[in-house]
């Protein structure tokens, strides 16, 4: 009998239990530079309500996701708190103007997040995007943001701490040297990319929970190459989209949504505790659970395994523009 992909899972070595799907909220913050479209405040709030009302119990956000924390916090305020058993994950972020990320900045970041979210603590707190800090000593040195992160756990501001970043070469040394409970990687373990594979092995060996974000490669594996000609937040060439089209062709022959295959590719990996799915409208929440339960035969997985998957960093040439 196949494993139940929708069963809750223990978060690494912690006492937390999380849903196998976590809903990401960066798109809800209204970030047209990243996604190529806008999301107004009412649509964002409606999506958060759907997340809270659905079968899941896990939401991820961040201070630098434009207005995401504000919009999530609006719904938390109107409901008088988060649903029982719900896990909220947010992140310590650098100063987006100066890129400063020392301990003082980390402290201001959590204070800003809790105020916006209308919470006095979160269950899971990550250090976010250290690769953009000009001096890593601000992160790893005495008085740095990592020291502050672990102190926040001791103070009870969170139950667990993680590392959320892009570049694997930046993450690996930190994961080896610091006792994180979880990590978030995005766009680097999908049907067409395996850049994070060795990092997931390391995390699994150390008992660090792997949260795999962006299984749809920022949307194209869910929306389709005919409708969304972007890959990893950038306009994509036909050559870049070719592996995605091969995935689409295989799935079409078997009557399987490509989005279902992309989601389950992550969910069925034993190293992955939860898969973070970005949503920007209410109906995407129900669709994610539908795709998680979609029957996909072994013959489909065998064909998908023949699609070439690169190990390169998919964001190496990204022109990063916050918002």
Q: In this structure, how is the largest beta sheet organized?
A: 8 strands, parallel, barrel
What is the end-to-end distance? 44 Å
Q: What form results from the Cα inertia axes?
A: globular
The overall strand count is 12
Describe the protein in words.
Helix content is 40%, strand content 15%. The longest helix is centred in the last third of the chain and has 17 residues, at 238-254. Helix 2 packs across helix 3 (68-79) and helix 3 (68-79) packs across helix 4. It has 323 residues and is of the alpha/beta class. It contains 13 helices and twelve strands. The strands form three sheets. It has an eight-stranded parallel barrel, surrounded by six helices. The protein has a two-stranded antiparallel sheet with strand order 1-2.
Structural key phrases:
323 residues; 8-stranded parallel β-barrel; alpha/beta; 40% helix; 12 strands; two-stranded antiparallel ribbon
Concise synopsis of the structure shown:
This protein is an alpha/beta fold. It is built from 13 helices and twelve strands.
Walk me through the topology.
Layout lengths: L8 E2 L6 E2 L2 E4 L7 H4 L5 H13 L4 E3 L7 H12 L7 E6 L10 H15 L6 E5 L8 H4 L4 H11 L4 E6 L2 H10 L4 E5 L10 H10 L2 E5 L6 H4 L6 E2 L2 E2 L2 H17 L3 H10 L4 E7 L3 H11 L5 H7 L19
Parallel strand pairs: 3-4, 3-12, 4-5, 5-6, 6-7, 7-8, 8-9, 9-12
Antiparallel strand pairs: 1-2, 10-11
Helix pairs in contact: 2-3, 2-12, 3-4, 4-6, 11-12
């Amino acid at each position: 009998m196949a494993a139940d992909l929708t069963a809750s899972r223990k978060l690494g070595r912690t006492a937390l239990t999380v849903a196998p799907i976590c809903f990401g909220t960066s798109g809800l913050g209204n970030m047209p530079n990243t996604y190529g479209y806008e999301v107004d405040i009412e649509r964002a709030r409606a999506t958060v309500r759907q997340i809270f009302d659905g079968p899941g119990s896990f939401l991820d956000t961040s201070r630098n996701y434009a207005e995401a924390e504000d919009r999530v916090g609006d719904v938390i305020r109107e409901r008088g708190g988060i649903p029982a058993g719900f896990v909220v994950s947010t992140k310590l972020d650098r100063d987006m103007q100066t890129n400063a990320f020392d301990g003082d900045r980390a402290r201001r970041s959590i204070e800003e997040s809790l105020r916006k979210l209308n919470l006095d603590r979160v269950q899971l707190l990550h250090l976010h995007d250290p690769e953009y800090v000009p001096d890593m000593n601000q992160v790893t040195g005495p008085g740095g943001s990592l020291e502050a992160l672990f102190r926040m756990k001791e103070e009870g501001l969170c139950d667990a701490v993680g590392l959320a970043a892009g570049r694997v070469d930046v993450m690996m040394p930190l994961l080896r040297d610091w006792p994180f409970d979880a990590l978030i990687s995005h766009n680097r373990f999908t049907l067409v990319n395996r850049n994070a594979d060795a990092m997931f092995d390391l995390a699994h060996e150390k008992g660090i929970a792997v949260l795999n974000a962006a299984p749809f490669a920022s949307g194209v594996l869910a929306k389709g190459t005919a409708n969304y000609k972007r890959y990893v937040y950038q306009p994509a060439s036909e050559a870049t989209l070719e592996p995605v089209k091969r995935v689409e062709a295989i799935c079409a022959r078997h009557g399987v949504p490509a989005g279902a295959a992309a989601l389950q590719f992550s969910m069925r990996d034993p190293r992955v505790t939860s898969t973070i799915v970005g949503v920007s409208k209410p109906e995407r929440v129900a669709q994610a659970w539908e795709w998680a339960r979609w029957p996909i035969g072994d013959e489909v997985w065998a064909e998908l395994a023949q699609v070439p998957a690169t190990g390169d960093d998919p964001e190496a040439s990204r022109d990063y523009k916050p918002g």
